[in-house]
Design a protein that fits this description.
The complex is a heterodimer of chains A (497) and B (98).
Chain A: H1 9-18, H2 23-41, E1 44-47, H3 49-64, E2 76-80, H4 107-114, E3 118-123, H5 157-164, E4 170-174, H6 181-187, E5 190-193, E6 214-218, H7 221-231, H8 249-254, E7 262-266, H9 276-291, E8 295-299, H10 307-322, H11 343-354, H12 357-369, H13 376-397, E9 402-406, H14 422-426, H15 433-438, E10 441-449, E11 456-463, H16 468-486
Helix pairs in contact in A: 2-3, 10-12, 10-13
Chain B: H1 6-15, H2 22-39, H3 74-77, E1 84-85, E2 88-89
Antiparallel strand pairs in B: 1-2
The chains are: A alpha/beta (497), B mainly alpha (98).
Chain lengths: 497, 98
Amino acid sequence: MADLIRLTAAELAAEIAAGSVSSVEVTEAHLARVEAVDEKVHAFLHVDREGALAQARAVDERRAAGERLGPLAGVPLALKDIFTTEGVPTTVGSKILQGWIPPYDATVTRRLKEAGVVILGKTNMDEFAMGSSTENSAFGPTGNPWDLTRVPGGSGGGSAASLASFQAPLAIGTDTGGSIRQPAAVTGTVGVKPTYGGVSRYGMVAFSSSLDQGGPCARTVLDAALLHEVIAGHDPLDSTSIDAPVPDVVEAARNGSVAGLRIGVVREFRGEGYQAGVLQRFDESVALLRELGAEVVEVSCPSFDLALAAYYLIAPSECSSNLARFDAMRYGLRIGDDGTRSAEEVTSLTREAGFGPEVKRRVMLGTYALSSGYYDAYYGSAQKVRTLVARDFERAFADVHVLVSPTTPTTAFPIGERADDPMAMYRADLCTIPVNLAGNAAMSLPCGLAPEDGLPVGLQIIAPAMADDRLYRVGAAVEAAFQARWGHPIIEEVPAL
Amino acid sequence: MPGITREEVAHLARLARLELSAEELDHFAGQLDDIIGAVARVSDVAAQDVPPTSHPLPLTNVMRPDEVRQGLTPAQALSGAPAQEQQRFKVPQILGEE
């Protein structure tokens, strides 16, 4: 059999179900890979070796007992450290939760376990998912497997890097402004932000509740669909969870096609700040869609121009409120409790010591935007922009089935380059943010390497809310056509570690 | 719209319960001023007659049946407490001495 760590999740699941390899063997192969390369990559914050092997053994026993296994049973996965895991540390990349062991599983964690997916460990991320490079982790940056001196994107850089370095065939991310799609784009992997409300947020540490959405990360479109199906669906524990059937994403991924579809190119997503090689690969993708039988038209979404500004008011406002719960009283870090200080002083000292610079910036920005006197001008206007963005999408989707754009304006940038320049960092999410504001679904998948630096470029596909299956139908067609052209998946070109 | 001063940032830090150092105040004041300068563009739409959107889903009052269910045990709920006493969270002094 081929090297186990190079197989797709679908292939691994088939081999395990057929009995040609055990889940324990597959899990051990991936744990060995983690041991061999993660010192260089730093994708994981915590590896749960014992827990993973116990989950794998349980799957093997169920198979031996003749039980029919789910489509991903026995396949290893890397879980972003924002989802609670009972008995396993959950830090959200923050010192304020260092050492915290949650007493319960997130719904996503529970569904993965029920599906027999083997959780290898928890992946690195920008603190509280605030960032676009994973440099804001309190526990050090993650390297991009394509070039370890560059960022793997963020906030889910650990999850994306684990895939691109073959430490896991599947991963879970969360996407508030692009934190699944942007890391996928810059690591040559596939990432999907499902429709808002499609995947439960219960047990997912809150950053900006009206924008946050968990979703699948993988190396292929089909693997992402199989994982999407496992984690999606109504959850009574999340009041914003959609009570409707999950679109048939797996069927769509198995039957990729764009023939007869109308596809819109968003006019506003190019121009100043876009790397030439990114636009070149994007234009080739558009030409490919035409060759495959799609009708491609240009659409205009004028309000997207204000989306970034609106996002950096709405997300900080919600975060300043959500993060008020980190008060040093019930769990997490407590600093300065020497018997002489008041609770308020202890809270302030703890938050000062426990939060990193980006979290502090956003908490203060949100506090500012919500203050009386500024509320209408800032938060109120941002909410109006949100309506205008949703209307632009509505108008576009009345005419086309999906929209396409580059996922990110540039390829992976060097670690340190934007670390202390917040506005430069924020622009990495220029093309992904409008989707979060409106709550619809989007995917990033590889569309080649930029000629000038040899780094991966992502193609973003955007679908209306609850039409997540369209992402997979189009994504699978594009993936198959590109692989036919390249002769292999682009991820095979990632340098050896 | 006006920018943000160092004094205002100090006030925000107090409201947000962040005991910032003097160096942090200097550093953040400049950065927040830049960010606010950039995001202030949203006020271009302030005068437009557009309803605000606070949330992508049109949901109101999502209810579930009021049934007794197993919750966390006291030991589980207290498992992450920085300090505890008599099955309760132990916190620093909240009220003044007198």
